[in-house]
# Entry
Amino acid sequence: MLMFDKQALASGQVPVGSSGQSQEAGHYSDTTASAGGSDDEGSTAATDGSTLRTSPADQAQETDGLEAEGDVEMEGATTLHSLRLAILEKFVQHVPNLQNVSGVIAIPFMQVILMLTSDLDGEEERGKVCLENLIGAVLSLLKLNVPDTNDICTRNLHREVSLVIMRLLSVLMSRPKSSSKSGNASFVSQTTANMLLQSGVIDYCLVLLKELIPYWKNTSQEETGTSTSGTLLKPHLPSTPPDMSPFFLRQYVKGHATDVFEAYPQLLTEMALRLPYQVQKHTPTHISFPQAWFYYLCEYMMTQQTPFVRRQVRKLLLFICGNKEKYRQRRDLHALESHMKSVKQCLESREPLSYDSLVEVTEHLKACVEVGTGRTGNWRRFCLDDPSVLTFLVETSCSVEEAVAAIALQLLQCALCPTRPQQAVASTQQQVFSYYFITKTN
# Structure
């Protein structure tokens, strides 16, 4: 029915024309199916607009004809559905061959698979088995149990195909209900999410994010230390870029026409953040994310990534925290711990600070002041969790330059002095801090 080998995949010549024609014919069939209504409207208009009358025998013949036409159309739709399902089953058998091709070659193959999955019905056992076989086949290529993290930012053919597979799974879980028949979108998305959860995709994405952190930290430092006055012009291709939707938006393909996988680390980070969010969203049971997830997501929040990646990090962290208050508290406590640790490391030598070290200490303390003034409760909780912070700030204010000392004193003020709307509540906290300082100094 649909036979092709590894050489055909590798050359990019996948004979999917017959399936495309079947799909196109299916759409035309659906369009002409509604033409029966127009015939009914025409006959009704003729009856209302004239004095013609039909005999009961003629009316019976017309009714029998319409019923026969409906039966033919229903039989044709059933045959088309079976044909599309048979083609999808053949495609699933050839999924293992994708490990020998590039990501660009794999995209048309995956586009046809997505088109065929839109016809799956959760009420049909054959469709359920076909979808499960498809997801199982693509997950076997990802190798979730043994992730390849060696020099993770360097791409190869297998990693390009793995990225396309991750985007395929994401599309299966994000397909809008309006794009398919009733019940199809929820059936496909829930089945995909359940199988991903059982296969350990949450831990797999955590491993990817952990290995990608050094790349983003180094990228942030490079962008901070260097500045360019302009960007190089990209070559203009004579032909129109191919349509790679929904794997890549048309605008993205246009901007990366020579190499759509050029920003591979960014694309991989986006998928490692998006898949856990979608799995949790479409799974009926609540997923308990390990504490390591909170730590690494907060680490990502402190790096200067592209806006889209930062938005994905914030979205996932907010989702697993449950509400904005808990999200801000975790983010602030992590940031305060990181900044204070850096300040302590700079002041460990007890020697006069160099200009660069002085600037670094000032920046870290200013970041703490931003939290202390904007979200004072989180700053005070951090001080209660680590009592050595206030002692350190007092000692720092007495031993560093005046500019740095002023910032340290401002942090002490945020911790000890009550804010006006909360004077009654904060008075108790002030007494606790005052008692702590008296005992420490004595």
User: Anything to note?
Assistant: The two ends are 89 Å apart (CA to CA).
